[in-house]
Amino acid sequence: MQNDPDWVKRFPGAVTVSDRDHAIRYLNDKSAATFASDGGQSLVGKDLMACHKERSKEIIRGILESGKPNVYTIEKKGVRKLIFQSPWYEEGSDVPAGLVELSLELPTNMPHFIRD
Question: CA 48 to CA 63: how far, in whole Å?
């Protein structure tokens, strides 16, 4: 990827970007730390699909085909996270150029507001 803005490098959520061919193109610091046991920054250039089960591969393919995001929450080792997976687009194109995943830790007592 081109030089990324300074804010994304140290953003407190994990940011992972891959291209349409599933090659990992970018990991910010949090994402690299999250995947440190799998290689961290050395994962850049590697196949995103290599570290996913078949169900996840189908979801990733579906996001790239439909252009629609996949959003869900998980809990792992007592930490709740919001996972937001979405296609990204190059300027002027309507065809997804790849996938971006944001993984954000959620506080246990996060307030929820309804604004009508």
Answer: 14
